[in-house]
Amino acid sequence: MKQGMKLILCLALIFLSVLFGGTLSFSIDSDSEQELKVVCEDAEDYVIFEKAALETSQVPKVNGDLIIIDTRRLSLTLYRDGQPIKKYPVAIGTPKTPSPIGEWKIINKGGNWGGGFGVRWMGLNVPWGIYGIHGTNKPGSIGHASSHGCIRMFNHNVLELYSLVKVGTPVHIVGDLPRVTIPQEVKRKQVGKDVLILQFALRKAGFDPGPADARFGPGMEEAVLKLQQFYGLEPSGIIGLNEQYLIKVR
Description:
The chain is of the alpha+beta class. It is built from five helices and 13 strands. The protein is elongated, with a radius of gyration of 19 Å.
């Protein structure tokens, strides 16, 4: 029975690794204790201390707190009830390995047992890689575009931030949107940078798709239907060429 459970857990972790486009490792010792690790885009390993909510729908809602990371100013600001309470300098991704612009959530929290890379980790629900906010053993990189996409902080700062936020805290990374080619048709359940661009374009056009999290879910579909109704188009919920011209992504 125990061996069967181990097999199921290992298969589940393999599926999650493929789904999230990064590396997840999973180990079970002789006492069947579970250890979940992540290897982020900066190639640093972290052990998850708090249970990871890997599915977006399972992430708890946190009211009042918001983290905004400004990739132009190289800063991270924690807001509580609309007021800034902490501000930190950060390192962001290079032009070739940019930090993911979008509206994410913290989905897990953990740290590095040895403290060699960075003492704490806060993972984000970015669907095309393993990105997060973490400390660093390269303090000279802070204030520069020098990471592989993760948000680096001084270790003493990340320790403080870690103690202040919970799993589920929204994290908005703002800056220049990625340049991508939009397919001629985009519909529900699709995920990617093209969906992210469309979410921002829908919002700018006055049709709120919900969080710009690169996932074409029910909120985005509802926004598309409102757009189609407003302009007298067939209410399909699918973004085709007509819709793309209307929201000015073509």
